[in-house]
Structure formats: C-alpha cells, structure tokens
Design goal:
The structure is a single chain. The chain has about 230 residues and is an alpha/beta fold. The chain has a single domain, classed as Spore Coat Polysaccharide Biosynthesis Protein SpsA, Chain A (Alpha-Beta Complex), CATH 3.90.550.60. About 25% of the residues lie in helices and about 30% in strands. The chain contains 6 helices and 13 strands. Strands 1, 2, 3, 4, 5, 6, 7, 10, 12 and 13 form a 10-stranded mixed β-sheet that branches. A 3-stranded antiparallel β-sheet has the order 9-8-11. It is globular, with a radius of gyration of 16 Å. It starts with 5 loop residues before the first strand and ends with a helix.
C-alpha cells in the first residue's frame, strides 16, 4: 500500500463508468478510507459505480475543476493528509508511479509534483509533459501535447505547471496560498497556482520517471466550445 501520508482525490463530472473504473483501480493500492470523491453536480449516475466504503460528496452546484479540487484538498487536510494524489476519472496511474511522485516531493519546497502523461490509446504519444508560460496568442503552452514520447521530455525539471489529469499536491502549502483560483473555473489554473506558490518559496516539479495514462473526456460540441473559451481567454 501507498504511504499513509497521501490520500487519493477524484473529481467527477458526468464521468459515466470511468469514475467507478478509476476508483476500482485506485483500490488496488489505496485503502478505501484514503480515497475521496467529489461529484461536481453531475446529471448522470456516475457515482453509482463507486463502492459504498469510499467517501463520496455530491455538490449542489458545478464549481469547476478549481472549486471541486479545492473542496477535495480541504477534505484531505481534514483527514490529516500531507499529500493528495489528484487524478481524473479518465486517467490511470500505477502504484510505482505514485511512489516516484512521493519521492519527488521529499524536498519540502516541492508543492506540486507532475508525471509525464501519455495517451491511453497510444502510449508512445504524449498527452502532455509540462506547462510553459509563453505570453503568446495562448498564454500557456502544454509542452509535448500530441508529440512522440522521447528524450526531450525525459529530464526532470522545475516547471510553470503540469498536466491537470494527474498530479501530487502538498496539501498545506497549496491551501495556504488559496488553492486553485476559482474565478478561473478550469484550464490554465495550474500555472496561476504555481505563480502564487513561487512567491512563497515553493516550486512545481516535473518527474518523467512517473507516468500516467489519459484518455481525455468525450466532448460534445458545447463542451468543445467551453474548452476553447477557457483556453483562449
């Protein structure tokens, strides 16, 4: 089992069967009492697939990635967690990769530890490595998105942010700076959080020795429009 200082947190929103499958996978190396699920006012029955001994909280309003993740981080802190492993329902991470992220965060200045994220349907292709602040037509670039996995993405480094599908957070510092900016709702929030953490002496670290698989959400036309808006604003 994973170090008892870490709790797994899963934010759901109309996640369908992915949520139950994700939690079921986590139960392979986390005890049920160290897995927390927050449902962001879903209109489907995605939480029905979660075992009864796993904590589930259903929100009355969709608070976005930022608000929902902040709620999960507060719940993790209430349970005494030092670290929270945040993972999307459509992502997968193995026990050994969580251990690598924990090793990365052994340095107390590391508030966020990010893995290399590969595409589930083609693990030789990156879904994304790290976030880079560019100040161009898009302020933030997801480095490596859609590129063949390879040496350029295999060096550990401090980064402006990481892929939001899976990361390890040091709970207290993240909440002490205010958590994720709920005004942003979703997307690019990791970089804004990293900026505030840096002002307090903390860093975000990318360790490619840890990897996660991500399928990505099934987006209808409206969801694609919303994503484009949040990325371009």
């Amino acid at each position: 089992m994973i170090d008892e200082r870490v709790i797994a947190i899963v934010l759901a929103y109309n996640s369908g069967e992915d949520l139950g499958l994700c939690v079921g996978h986590l139960l392979g190396f986390f005890p049920a009492e160290r897995i927390l699920v927050v449902d962001n006012a879903s209109t489907d029955d995605c939480t029905q697939g979660v075992p009864e001994d796993v904590y589930v909280e259903r929100l009355e309003k969709n608070l976005g990635f930022c608000g929902g993740t902040n709620r999960l981080l507060r719940l993790a802190r209430e349970r005494g967690a030092t670290f929270a492993l945040s993972i999307n329902p459509d992502a997968r991470v193995e026990e050994e990769d969580v251990r690598v992220l924990m090793h990365t965060a052994r340095d107390r200045c590391v508030a966020l530890a990010h893995p290399r994220v590969l595409r589930e349907d083609d693990p030789a292709t990156l879904d994304g490595a790290w976030m880079k602040l560019t100040w161009r037509h898009r302020a933030v670039q997801l480095v490596g998105e859609g590129m063949p996995d390879g040496v350029p993405y295999h060096r550990p480094r401090r980064v402006d942010g990481g892929h939001g599908a899976c990361f390890l957070a040091r709970v207290d510092p993240v909440l002490e700076v205010g958590g994720f900016n709920e005004d942003l709702f979703a997307y690019q929030d990791e970089v804004e959080l990293t900026i505030r953490l840096r002002r307090k002496g903390y860093v975000a670290a990318y360790n490619p020795q840890a990897k996660a698989l991500h399928r990505g959400p099934r987006l209808d036309a409206k969801k694609r429009e919303n994503k484009a808006y949040y990325l371009a604003r």
